[in-house]
Amino acid sequence: MKLSGGSARVNALMAQMSLGEKLGQISMLADGLVETGPPGPHNPFNMIVDGRVGSLLNVWGAHLVREAQRRAVEESRLGVPLFFGLDVVHGHKSIHPVPIAEAGSFDRQLWEATARDSAIEAMADGVHMTFAPMIDVARDARWGRIVETAGEDPLVNAEFGRARVRGYQARDEKGIMRLAACAKHFCAYGAVVSGRDYAEADVSWRGLEEIYLPPFRACVDEGVAAIMPAFIDVAGMAMTGHKRLLRDMLRARWRFDGLIVSDYNAIAELINHGVAADAPEAAALALNAGVDIDMMSDAYFNGLPIALERGLVSMDEIDMAVRRVLNFKEQIGLFDDPYRNMAPSASKEEIPKTLAPERRALSRQAAQRSIVLLKNEGALLPLKAPRSLAVLGPLADAPNDQLGPWASAGDGQDAVTILAGLRETYAQADVRFAKGAPFEGRDEDELEAARKALAGADAIILCIGESRMMSGEALSRTKPEIPAGQLELARMALESGAPVVLAINSGRPLVLPDWLVEGAHAILAAWHAGTEAGPALAAILSGACNPSARLAITWPRTTGQMPLFYGLRPSGRPHDPQNTWTTGYYDCPFDPCWSFGQGLSYTRFARANLRVDRDALDLDDLVSVSVDVTNIGTCEGVETIFLFSRDPVAQVTRPMLELRDFTKVALRQGETRTVVFVVKVRDLCYLDEDRKPRLDDGAIQFHVGASARREDLERIDVVIAQG
Ligand code: BGC
What we know:
The protein is an alpha/beta fold. The chain folds into three domains: 8-346, Glycoside hydrolase, family 3, N-terminal domain (TIM Barrel, Alpha-Beta Barrel); 358-559, Glycoside hydrolase family 3 C-terminal domain (Rossmann fold); 605-720, Immunoglobulin-like (Sandwich), CATH 2.60.40. 28% of the residues lie in helices and 18% in strands. The chain is built from 20 helices and 26 strands. Strands 9-6-5-4-3-2-1-10 form an eight-stranded parallel sheet. Helix 4 links the parallel strand 2 (55-57) and strand 3 (83-86). Helix 6 (108-124) packs parallel to helix 7 (154-168) and helix 10 packs parallel to helix 12. The longest helix has 17 residues, at 108-124. The chain starts with 7 loop residues before the first helix and ends with a strand. The structure holds beta-D-glucopyranose. Beta-D-glucopyranose (BGC) binds at residues 36-37, 57, 87, 131, 184, 263-264, 473.
């Protein structure tokens, strides 16, 4: 979006505005339908009439937004309409899998489609901006917000971000973007030390350039409407006042001309960071760095008049931010139609309670494509016709928890649970259920009920993991594990002798004890898969759907390995289990429990004929890397192929693998298809010591295959020979 100009209407408005009205426009307050931060002292509804607020967050529903808008348009002096923002992160009413799960579909079209559907639902509820996508590369499962990300890889986050922006911002019949996207949190929030939320991040310029910034660059290139700076400080610079990154990089170098919206109360928190003495200083720091909107802190409204007096900011800077907000409102059509999507007579009762079937169907499809099969010993799955099933665990019948955190207006009443899904799928079987354990702690009666339920069962479906309240913002965990009471239930299930299908429901990779990984016959990362999690999991267990998802994040063996990810740089003493003097751990294997990209199918695939169309390349060349993929199993299925590269000799150390592309290929039994990746040689450049892109003459390796594990990859080399 281009927001720095100004139409005649906006210019005329600006000319009439008092300082207070201008500061109102750049202040966003929460209404509090949901709480996403410490409640403020405000009652924004009463402040609208005074022109004291320009946008509201955490409010939706035609009846409510209409009333707020009426006050702004009909009762405030200048009648400037409000816009409404909300965290529509993985669905609005129809809830899709949490992002860390949906990322594992590696399906750009799906990422876009679920965002488009969320936008349709949110728009119908009067919402104009979503605070999404979150594209913070994250590698430490202790951090609760890992659930909101697309995982550990910069390219996956970049592609996920692009698809989301396209989906949210798709135009309606009038040619207006349905839902403005706000990419967050700029930047390196995922690198908070020890996975502790709101902590500092110490990231080198190389880390920023190569890992944390590319997803934001991708969203800017895709035309994202807004960016939210992170709460945190990066290498000592508080992001909400980071002039170099916000103004010099984002605005000047990348030419981002959309809105910069602070995080919740983040401007006032500059005082806690120790970079501003009071609200005027904090407000000046943020405004001068380019932050247009103050979310929730009132530092702009109360602090900027004083900052002006002190000469810390100029009226021009304030006007620039106000102009952007007004231009945004104009471009999303609010001046022409302030009640857009707020039907005049809409009341709570008139808003349809049931979800549209086509959106439910998409949620189901998204869940099916996000649930990862990690183990399937003796081809236990699919479970064709069990006579009896014991369904155990606190997540088997947990409609609210399966929605996961940040479930927007999602309602557990709309959710179909795993138990319900299994009962429908296995209508002929005796499906018994016992919770067996609470999320945390233990319950002897529950355990006893589970003991009874599993007696004589043909198979046990064990649904354990995290409640929705165990991951998300402010929910970092030092032990991202399955709580002891649930493990006791798992042990009882394994000891029964019946085959156990372990469905881990969580918002993050969980550390599992070895006995559970070894003892369970089948294991699935079922995540928090949303409204249709139940039917989706049941379809996978029964074989109606062949699983195709992969892990977008490494699952460590133990918490002490975190942060663990595939893109490590080579050590001078590479890991060798036979040699003490090499990198690794004394008390734990080097490799993870499951690597990035892992995930099984009910069929098997083979790759052959890895080839390149040319093997000597110059900087401006394109090179095609191709491989033939064959379905050599017994049913149709979808395979994911990753293309990584490695620069084995450069002026600086380069990661052992860098993801360059990924694709999916659907194959019938016996079918072969050729997957072709086209790579721009220039994209293989790295930044040298002077931060200049560089590629040296010599070999570049391409590694192609099914995951980041060595054994899943084949390699082919090309030679760079620059003329
Ligand atoms: C979160 C943001 C979110 C905002 C508004 C903050 O606490 O960090 O991601 O968009 O609240 O709900």
